[in-house]
Write a structure and sequence with these properties.
By secondary structure, this protein is of the alpha+beta class. Helix content is 28%, strand content 20%.
Length: 836
Amino acid sequence: MTISRASRLSLAVSLASLVSVGLASNANADAPLPSGAHPRIWIDPSTTATMKANLASTSSAASSVVAGCQSILAKASEMQQAGIEGYNWAYSSATCALAYRLTGDATYAAPAVTLFKAMLNDYQTIGDGLGGDAVVQTDTGYGMRFYGAYSALMYDWLHDAPGVDTTLLAAARERFAAWVTWYDASGYMKAMPGSNYHAGYVFAKTLIAIAEAGEGGNDAYWNQVIDTLFTQDVIGNGLAPKGNLAGGDWPEGWEYGPMSIMEYALAARALAEQGQTFPALTPWLDSLPMRAAYGLNPSQNAQYVGGDLDDTTVDAPLDPRVLIATIAGPGSAQGAAWAQSLKSTAFTAADMCPVYDALAEARAAAPTSYTASNPALSYFAPGTRNFYARSSWSPSATWTVFTSAPRLGPDHQHLDDSSFVIEHGADALIVDPSPYGSLSTLTGNGITANSNSVEQEYQPSQGPYGSGDMAFTKATSDGVAAARAELEAAFGGGGSTSDVPLARRDWTFLPEGEVVTIDRVTTGDPTRNGMMRFRSLATLTQSGSTFSGTVGNSQVVIHPVALSAGTPSVDTPSVGDCWTSSDYGVCAVARYPVTEYALTLPGPSATAVHVIDALAIGEAAATAVSLSDTSIDPAGSDNTAVLGAAVTRSGSQTYVVASATGVSGSTMTYGVPGGTSARHVVFDAPADANRNSTVTATVTDGRCHVQVTAGGTLQGSPLIFTMSSAADGCSVGSVATAPSPTGPGSPSADAGALSAGDAGSNAGAGTPGGTGGGGSGGGALPPVTGEPPGVSCQFAPSHVGETWRSLLVLMAGAWALTRARRRGDSQPREGRDSAI
């Protein structure tokens, strides 16, 4: 049965209200209201004293605050304009208000007071009178994070400043009431942790609750912030073991992550200053610099995009706010030290609002390199299901990211289950050039299929309600990283059952510099195909059976090792965006020039095995052949039940193996040449309930004949082991999993273990090199891409229990699908120009 969008929305709204009632916590209902003198927020006497001392250095962030306000005074005409939804007034007011608090000079208070009044009454230009009660309602509440939050900050920081009187403060409290009342009733994603709207609302309501407490405002806001926004939303949902915040990553990517992360962190700091602490936030804040380290490209000058990016660069810029969150927020001393190290070596740009750099500086965290003491080369973020891996920490390393997640939120997450990128040193080889707002799988590197269960305007891409997932991940001490994207459900959701019985990518990264993909798509219909592509900055050309090209000092070589059918082609997609058509799923453009290797795999059942080399120019490519090649199976009888690749590179031999049917039988057998020792990576290995297997091998005619059965001591998902040469008896050796360092106070590596029904994975929440993750993802959300990027940020909803989460997802999804179809209307897009 297909449920109409209107019915989905009505049902979800009703049930979501029950969820809210059922999960509301009164654990802190008797928390004492903030009281006492102002300022109450962030600049307590100790912090203020440290900042004042830092003014002695002209290169300090504190000095930049004063210099910033001097610049504002010198360019008064620029102060007239609010910027997108008020961000210029917000940052400029904060800069001058802090300059006043540090120097006592009323000259700096004057522009802050002017902007305080403007945020309360105006919209785009000082004196236009177009703001007031309705100012935060534009763009479905986007401006709440600026008008609401920074007006509250000015209420606190300028409470006794020249030009601020009881009449102005009373007017501000009335405005706060109007803004919060509207947002509580109608604000976009007001109960959805992990969205930039929710983060902005948490930030605003927290600062309002503290600033006006006990002074004639709405004192109920205080407990609402503690019990609902933090205890229920951020902690209970966002930081659940598979919650979208777990691991410190961001579902909508790193154009949107930094600001919202900082908003959550600094709201939490403000609460802690009033005696309300949340211990669960500390390990999360410590995971932010951990993930940031793994998210850096080898050159450490940019990071994985992970969602929308309104730019033509391959990788996302490095925004220091993700580290300021840990340093200035309630991160541990160790987490702050890691963050400070990254902030001083890679994330060196000054924040657009110097107030935040000054807050971080005041902590005086001594930098400590995370990677120097944590050598693991991979990191799995169980919230976003992003799996980061690299061959080393050298600038010449090969670095890759594999992603496959359910729909985690309505905005900025692409329909890209099973997509990945590869960079070699300074050169991006396999890239995701998806335009901002893409609703098409064809703009990235994921696999897709012709599916009638996907709404027509999204065909032939994955569906907007999809709930594919990362079934498991694994990393070993010798640098192998392997994972499975399970995406049948990416073609269902929203009231529809997927008509794609099997859609799977088994993905392996080898430390020599190869990525091996084993793709399976079963549609059950010869007229319905599977599709895949690899997009590259290289100009790809075909030579024999391989496709290759160069980028900078590197080259990429694509080996189509085994194809069930179909002929690869090289195409040059147009550069553009996907906004102009309602047929979202057919969009195949790019946001910067690329060429692509494209392949259509005819149904009803399709398989493809590829090996992709990341090499220095002049370096010999790997030898990569199918397991059925005569060089591997000369008699053509050993490997009929398996598929995969034999990869030889730099003297290392690896066999990546999977069941030909995609099903784990009671026994798996295959044979390989026994001339050398080899590494084996085996998907679909027979295993017991603990994912354990036994591997035996016999020597026949100089070959190793391998048999895998369930039970034993080798743990799978996937099974990774070594095997000696036939001369040494084809003996089997275990390979240790990679160490999984965790942040201080973090859960252990297995703390995020999935249940027995969750595909048998055991990833720790945000632990580098941890295995597992994935499992059932719950419901699905169509993307919305109408919010301005740049200063905006996001999370995504997390677990309120899988059933309840699905209902919340449907609620947001029904609305978001309508908004997505307004793409390209009058929604503003945030600029990156400085606020001062």
